[in-house]
């Protein structure tokens, strides 16, 4: 008998730059016919426990996940971590250090905005972030709440995009370090949404660092790229993952849920790989 259950392994909540709180996202995903979810907020795991509480009510499964910003020789990459121990000391220490770097970046952003006559306090942004790591999305929400922009999109365009007055580059880990931390915490590391511009030298270094998989199914990947990265995964013995990269800020985002997903048996393969660490 075929297992028809589906899993979405790339979702964001209000703990990072998503719109919905973890519980509401779980409920919406259930309505889209999904059985298993990975909450992969940017550089924070605070949403996992909240999602698990909601999932128990609906008989769904939550995979511990995170999306880490990293670099390879100056090129930015995003790494998805799965099946790690959420209370592992090394992971918590690394995320705490990253959170501190993000707070320092936040102060730099606020200083630049103040020079333009925009007066926000760190407390206003932290309040917008809730349990998440403060970043540009939360500054945007604070700008709207304070009346400096009419909406989220305007806040980004006027103040937070590259070359705008409040932009400060995001701190990032070295990819090899991020992969090592995920492995130490018992997890697996997957290259997120490689798209059309994955440089060969970057990919080679990720392989040397022990990357376990590659995100094949993603809204940025049309049929040609899906086939390409499926073959890459086979050629290099990598796990295949996929998900919607749902954020929920646009009405059309809802159509992503259930559309960009993987068969549940493939999730079981990821779990077996993590259990062998």
From TrEMBL:
Name of this chain's protein: PHP domain-containing protein
GO MF, one example: 5'-3' DNA exonuclease activity
Superkingdom field: Bacteria
Domain Polymerase/histidinol phosphatase N-terminal: 7-72
Species lineage: Bacteria, Pseudomonadati, Rhodothermota, Rhodothermia, Rhodothermales
A UniProt-annotated Pfam family: PHP
Native source organism of the sequence: Rhodothermus marinus (Rhodothermus obamensis)
UniProt cross-references to PANTHER family, sorted A to Z: EXONUCLEASE, POLYMERASE_HISTIDINOL PHOSPHATASE N-TERMINAL DOMAIN-CONTAINING PROTEIN
InterPro entries xrefs: PHP_dom, PHP_domain, Pol/His_phosphatase_N, Pol/histidinol_Pase-like
């Amino acid at each position: 008998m075929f297992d028809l259950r589906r899993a979405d392994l790339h979702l964001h909540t209000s703990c990072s730059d998503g719109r919905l709180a973890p519980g509401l996202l779980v409920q919406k995903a259930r309505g889209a016919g999904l059985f298993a979810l990975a909450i992969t907020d940017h550089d924070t795991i605070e949403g996992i426990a909240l999602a698990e509480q909601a999932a128990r009510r609906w008989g769904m499964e939550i995979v511990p996940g995170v999306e880490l910003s990293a670099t390879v020789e100056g090129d930015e990459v995003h790494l998805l971590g799965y099946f790690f121990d959420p209370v592992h000391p090394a992971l918590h220490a690394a995320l705490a250090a990253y959170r501190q770097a993000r707070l320092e970046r936040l102060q730099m952003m606020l200083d630049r905005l103040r020079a333009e006559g925009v007066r926000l306090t760190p407390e206003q942004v932290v309040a917008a972030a809730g349990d998440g790591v403060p970043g540009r999305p939360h500054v945007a929400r604070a700008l709207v709440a304070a009346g400096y922009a009419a909406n989220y999109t305007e806040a980004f365009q006027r103040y937070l995009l590259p070359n705008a007055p409040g932009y400060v580059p995001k701190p990032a880990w070295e990819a090899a370090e991020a992969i090592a931390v995920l492995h130490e915490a018992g997890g697996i590391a997957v290259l997120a949404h490689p798209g059309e511009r994955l440089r060969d030298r970057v990919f080679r270094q990720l392989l040397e660092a022990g990357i376990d998989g590659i995100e094949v199914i993603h809204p940025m990947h049309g049929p040609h790229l899906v086939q390409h990265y499926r073959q890459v995964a086979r050629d290099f013995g990598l796990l295949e993952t996929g998900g919607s990269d749902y954020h929920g800020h646009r009405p059309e985002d809802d159509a992503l849920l259930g559309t960009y997903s993987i068969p549940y048996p493939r999730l079981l393969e990821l779990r077996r790989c993590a259990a062998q660490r």
